[in-house]
## 1
Amino acid sequence: WRNLADGSLAAVLAASALALTCLAPDRPALAPRAPALLAAVTILAVLAANGHAYNLGAVRLAEAPRPLAQALGRASLHRVFTPFSFDQARRPERTELEAGFEWGRGTLEACWNVPAHVGNLSLYAALPAGRLQRLRDAVPTPQLARMAGRWGVEALVVPADPGLAARAGVISPPLQVLGADESLPAYLVALPHLPRARLAAELVSADPAGAFDLVRRAGPGERRTVLEGPIPAGYRPPRGTVSVVRDEPERVELASESDGPALVLLEDQHAPGWSARVDGVRAEILHADWLGRAVWVGAGRHAVSFEYRTPGLRLGLAIAAATFLALGAAALARGRRAPAESRLG
């Protein structure tokens, strides 16, 4: 309710300011400034809606080293998860903003994970991924942490004492501590996990509702892949390998080799805008394990690529260009008509 109230208040204020700006052309004194007022109101509305995204922490905190990221290295994309919330009481000497900034950056939460080339299950977007949000709403955090290895999450960030992960039932002992940040303090504890990119072995087919139920009820050691699509007749788990050749935010390239037809699985979120190609030929992306994306390949060696393009971007650019041209033509016609009307007058 608090979020709803805050959002409604911001919307009412923005709409009121926009309405007043639209009335400006009717007042001769404000008419020349109407475009500038409209632009200012639009910018302020965006800032009001995304205020938390523009909070800046102290430079000394931004430049501080991140031991947990250094413990992981940058040879490949690592994935971590923080199942424990930040307690402001642990940092009484800091302001709330600085304490949260220090904790988030030190524990590699979104969006501080991006410069360190670290992935996680946290959300940092105006429109969060619906499937991930639904999973987080339905599954208790300790259970989600235990099953996170299914999506290639290889480590958990644990505050105060690495043994807290075992006492909370998140990881079964013995624990393997990968790194520590004594200044927080926080520890990076290894989580049993499957490779982020791999050949699916045993498959089970389900519709979206059934896939969600199977995934959220699966145990941490579950290795079956839940596929939202048909399984070919005579399918058998293939033998082979998958390796990541190129790893960028908007493009991931894989190399696969198998002794039979195989489902190449990449445990990155499937979202509108992603397309796939197998050996340069467009391929259908299937939902796998609720969050991941997968494509079918034949026996042998194959190059698989996933590429992201913002949905509707080209159409939006085309509409913007057409609108700009139409407004320019209207302004030009109005400018030519005004002198003619003055001569007639």
## 2
Amino acid sequence: MVDRLQGREVGRRGGFELKRISVAIDGPSGAGKSTLARMAAKELGYIYVDTGAIYRAVALYTIRCGVSADNPADIVGLLEDISIKLGYKDGVQRIMLNGEDVSEEIRSSDVTVRASVVSAIPKVREFLLGMQRSMAEKGGVIMDGRDIGTVVLPGAEAKIFLTASDTDRAERRYKELVEKGTDTSFDQVLESIRQRDKRDSERSIAPLKPAEDAVIVDTSGVGLDDALNMVMKVIRERM
């Protein structure tokens, strides 16, 4: 087995060496993966990679090109025209699609629905896999998604499967949408999350599930600070 720690920088705390590891955080929609991963990365001085944003960028491009979600072959045909890069401004990840910053546009409801469809296409996942893995080669990375610990970074030193009840997740997402001025209802958000859970867990390619060596962190009824402490405890134990 290749030693994935070779050549990595280490820090010191309390006389102990701290390895700059790769952290995989997976879980269903609305579990708080992005928020907690971003906060943990900031606390550790790590790079945060939101893989969902990468799939959203692909989804946005297919919508712009007028390709139907019912035609996977047409979606795959667009991949060679897509260039996706990650940048950081004031410590916040920005997603660049063919040189354009689309960080805000990819958060629309239409893109959210399309991203779920696009992410289930094997050739799309294959297209993005190498990009995602290259981001974690040197460690010091926290990456979140739905198959990071099982497929993208199976050798990650810390694997967390972050979850919460569907009603808790719907409540969090509903509040986010309301704050953004989106016209929706709690019942609509809850139904959307349940449909997304079903699609993600039943898809034939890289279904949503915890890695065998992942630590399951359930944040149902838990506040943000306590949830962050739960995540950081898992990470630090592996450093």
